[in-house]
UniProtKB/TrEMBL annotation:
<dbReference type="GO" id="GO:0008170">
    <property type="term" value="F:N-methyltransferase activity"/>
</dbReference>
<dbReference type="GO" id="GO:0015667">
    <property type="term" value="F:site-specific DNA-methyltransferase (cytosine-N4-specific) activity"/>
</dbReference>
<dbReference type="GO" id="GO:0032259">
    <property type="term" value="P:methylation"/>
</dbReference>
<dbReference type="InterPro" id="IPR029063">
    <property type="entry name" value="SAM-dependent_MTases_sf"/>
</dbReference>
<keyword id="KW-0949">S-adenosyl-L-methionine</keyword>
<dbReference type="GO" id="GO:0003677">
    <property type="term" value="F:DNA binding"/>
</dbReference>
<dbReference type="InterPro" id="IPR002941">
    <property type="entry name" value="DNA_methylase_N4/N6"/>
</dbReference>
<protein>
    <recommendedName>
        <fullName>site-specific DNA-methyltransferase (cytosine-N(4)-specific)</fullName>
        <ecNumber>2.1.1.113</ecNumber>
    </recommendedName>
</protein>
<keyword id="KW-0238">DNA-binding</keyword>
<keyword id="KW-0808">Transferase</keyword>
<dbReference type="InterPro" id="IPR053943">
    <property type="entry name" value="RlmKL-like_Mtase_CS"/>
</dbReference>
<keyword id="KW-0680">Restriction system</keyword>
<dbReference type="InterPro" id="IPR017985">
    <property type="entry name" value="MeTrfase_CN4_CS"/>
</dbReference>
<comment type="similarity">
    <text>Belongs to the N(4)/N(6)-methyltransferase family. N(4) subfamily.</text>
</comment>
<dbReference type="Pfam" id="PF01555">
    <property type="entry name" value="N6_N4_Mtase"/>
</dbReference>
<feature type="domain" description="DNA methylase N-4/N-6">
    <location>
        <begin position="46"/>
        <end position="109"/>
    </location>
</feature>
<dbReference type="GO" id="GO:0009307">
    <property type="term" value="P:DNA restriction-modification system"/>
</dbReference>
């Protein structure tokens, strides 16, 4: 038995399945304390320009690139979001490509990975500031329930910024637009720390201060300072509007570093809804187009044609059965999500160059009290597509101490709170 084969344990030997269950494996996991990056902030450097849900940790991506990328490799992220993989690739000297269905996320990724001439950027900022202080015209887009989400004076001041951005040409317009999008969210009545649209409590509304200009200027100044001092992107990045489940543009790559959604947008993160405060104001000015509300409908996990091959993955089938015992509808939603995920992985694998590697960073959430072993499901999918198992690293994401040995939790239905962990599933095409 080769080393790689020995890392897989035949599931049926654990007596977990009935005789007619398809056979499958569990894949061994390795705890890696140094990947927990205790005390190291997630949002750092250029990534501070605009927050985004479920961002990859930049230091993790940097580690994976340093360990797995070879000279002249192209790095790909099929769910690039705000572009952590893209920026870390380009500062490490690798060309990178990212797909996402969220236009605002792509704009953030584009702006993060651009090269800036600082003096020109500063000059444009001064010009923009002057135009804003002397111009009182407003351009307010049609936004449903705008008065429910914003104070009147805030709408006016956001409208003034939008007017100036729309009616002037700036070399670094996208940079200002992304910061404007952030301020539109920050100055709305949405609750901090929520991904969905929840309004702050009534008592906070009266005291809500209009800080549109102050925050807009301050954030631009901070970002100019950060860009001046941070590593310069050395290679180009290509964020692209594309759905990874579908037939995607013709590209090839050598290394995949990605963090897919962990479930459908209704019950996990609604990326579109999160982005809607910014995109309501910048959609028509965004070079990737608009309509954040469509993003959640397009997100992975839509009801569609089932690829029968996914029924061969007992780890998935048995997970669905466990959820079905509690809630058939939810079980169906999870099944459709993994059907979409399977299609996306099939697309990713088909364009991976020989000797390439993939790193999928996933979490094992629970549905109806049942844990979904997304790390094992991902490994099972990749294995069935001919890739070879290399490792599943476990990292702590709540800064808890990790066991230093191989994790003993290769057991389906493990009870620990694994959302405090992230799993990095690594396979190769050797
Ligand atoms: C976990 S987030 C990625 C975050 C990203 N790693 C970052 O650092 O910002 C998952 C992303 O997948 C995107 N997404 C969901 N379904 C998709 C699909 N079918 N094709 C491409 N992207 C999709 C979402 O819009 C979201 O931006």
């Amino acid at each position: 038995m080769s080393i790689i084969q020995s890392k897989k344990i035949l599931q049926n030997s654990l007596g977990l399945f009935s005789d007619d269950s398809p056979l499958d494996f569990v894949y061994e996991k390795t705890s890696k304390e140094e990947l927990s990056f205790i005390g190291e902030k997630l949002t750092r450097g250029r990534h501070k320009i605009h927050p985004y849900p479920a961002m990859l940790h930049p230091l993790l991506v940097d580690y994976l690139i340093k360990n797995y990328a070879n000279k002249n490799d192209v790095i790909f992220d099929p769910f690039c979001g705000s572009g952590v993989t893209l920026l870390e690739s380009s500062v490490n000297g690798y060309k990178s490509i990212g797909f996402d269905i969220n236009p605002l996320a792509l704009l953030i990724a584009k702006v993060k990975t651009e090269n800036y001439k600082i003096e020109e950027l500063k000059k444009e900022f001064l010009g923009l500031k002057a135009s804003l202080l002397e111009n009182f015209n407003t351009d307010i887009p049609m936004i449903n329930n705008i008065e429910y989400w914003y104070k009147k004076e805030i709408v006016r001041d956001l409208g003034r910024i939008r007017f100036v951005l729309k009616n002037n040409s700036y070399k670094y317009k996208d940079f200002f637009l992304v910061i404007f999008a952030f301020i539109c969210r920050n100055q709305s009545f949405t609750r901090n720390g929520e991904f969905k649209r929840y309004r702050v409590k009534e008592d906070k509304i009266d005291n809500f201060e209009n800080k549109v200009f102050e925050k807009f200027f301050q954030h631009i100044e901070n970002m100019i300072y950060i860009i001046k001092d941070s590593a310069v992107p050395k290679e180009k990045s290509y964020p692209m509007l594309a759905n990874s489940e579908k037939n995607t543009p013709k590209i090839n790559y050598d290394l995949v570093i990605t963090s897919p959604p962990y479930g459908d947008s209704r019950t996990t993160v609604a990326y579109g809804e999160y982005s809607s405060f910014g995109s309501d104001w910048v959609d028509d000015l965004n070079c990737y187009g608009g309509n954040a509300y469509k993003v959640d409908k397009e997100s992975m996990g839509k009801i569609g044609q089932i690829d029968e091959n996914i029924r061969k993955h007992s780890i998935l089938v048995n997970t669905i059965k466990r959820i079905e015992n509690f809630d058939k509808k939810r079980a169906g939603e999870v099944f459709y999500f993994f059907n979409g995920y399977y299609n996306a992985i099939k697309n990713v694998v088909s364009k991976l160059n020989e000797n390439g590697k993939v790193c999928f960073v996933v979490g094992n959430r629970t549905v109806k009290g049942q844990q979904i072993p997304m790390d094992q499901i991902t490994a099972s999918f990749l294995d069935s597509m001919g890739l070879k198992f290399e490792n599943i690293f476990v990292r702590d994401i709540l800064n808890k101490v990790m066991p230093s040995q191989n994790s003993p939790t290769n057991i389906i239905g493990e009870k620990s709170n694994t959302m405090s962990n992230e799993y990095i599933v690594v396979f190769n095409k050797n």
